[in-house]
Amino acid sequence: MYGVCLTSLSRIWRLSKNSKENLVVQPLVRKVIPIVSLEWDGESESLYEAQKKIYPRSVSGLFTQWRWALVLLTQLVFYGLPWFEWGQRQAVLFDLGARRFYILGYVLYPQDFIYLTGLLVISALSLFLFTAVAGRLWCGFACPQTVYTEIFLWIERKVEGDRNARLQLDGSPMSPEKLVKKWFKHLLWLGLAMWTGFTFVGYFTPIRELGLEFLQTRMGSWEVFWVFFYGFITYGNAGFMREQVCKYMCPYARFQSAMFDRDTLIVSYDEMRGEPRGSRSRKADPSALSLGACIDCNLCVQVCPTGIDIRDGLQYECISCGACVDICNTVMDKMNYAHGLIRFSTQNSVSGGWTNNQMLRRIFRPRVLIYGAVLLVLCLGVLVSLILRVPLKVDVVRDRGMLARIVAGGQLENVYRLQVMNATEQSQTYRIGVQGLPGLMIASEPQFTVDGAQSRWVAVRLDLPYGAATPGSHSIRFNIDAVDTGMHVSEKSVFLVPR
Fold this sequence. Notes:
By secondary structure, the chain is an alpha+beta fold. The protein folds into three domains: about 1-45, no CATH class; about 50-390, no CATH class; about 390-495, Immunoglobulins (Immunoglobulin-like, Sandwich). It is built from 18 helices and 18 strands. The protein starts with a helix and ends with a strand.
């Protein structure tokens, strides 16, 4: 079917070449035929726009300083946190093998999965709230893709030079100088990417042990895999794909329009002030030349990491990094014009000529208040739950191999296995009690000890005088108390009386 359509369209093209209607048919055919290239008048023409490499120009200014401050902050946290100790262990460690997660003073088990769920919900709502208020500032200032792209670009500028120097270097034939610069740049990129992968794995394997294993070439296979995998992803995304990740792979750019409205803060070009654009000397009066404030220098396009022209209006590729704002303000300073031709503003503010106070008053609109209220309730709920959390987990499992039996003394016995998890980092002694049936008692040792941040399976035998309860299943409750700290946990189970 696909081939038939292509054949038919090709015939229409050939028949229309000498026809008066070809001005209508030819553009239609060009748009409809979804193939890489067709032969137009003997020449091969691509129907897909070639992706040109973007060479962002370096820029300085307020938002550039904020962006680099967040780059430093996020990387200090990421690279430094695994080396930070809490007591006798790593402060943040997700020990998947032992199924324990250490976060500062907390020891979490898989049974605490509810906290991860709460964290993910809070993160999602925070993203919705932040996007409704300030657009894609997360993308432009703190997203890992943006952060590592900035770092890799900084390395590239230090080795190859700024935008014009890199353009000239890439356009020149291969030479020893070009070869040395390219190899040195990629060597630095690979070193940073591998260190990033090593740090990432250091959150799941104690990083000091991991470093010692690396020096002794004793790293495990999965550790080697994840170091290279995460390093390769960093190297590829930040070194080569860059804006392609933001434009084509990140889903956030696609559904952000559902969270935007005309009062969302975005990077805006003041068209009423800037148009008509045109070049002029610094001493020229733009009103005398019937020109706007924009001198059409295209520097806002050259500094954009995604290669867009912000003067074309709001576009999904814009990550709100503010680079175009900084460079435009620099140009305005040189021309002795006022700042703000390109600025962070809202669509209503730009079209209505609002002041900053008028724009800020629109922040507290209904959708923002709803997001904020729900987020506040969730944060308080998770915080209170963590504060009131009892660092003791107990799972009760009936011994399925022996449901009930009669033992010496005419006692009916049920056997259970209790998994007791000590979520503190000190050794704890626990005592088991039981309630629910008259005459029910513990026939095994009721007291035991569990080491810090460890779990232990304990076999518990419960005896009941024969005939003290009717046949069937009876609800009972295990009470586990910490002898030293007073912690208490109660778990339900059943006691079976055979017929």
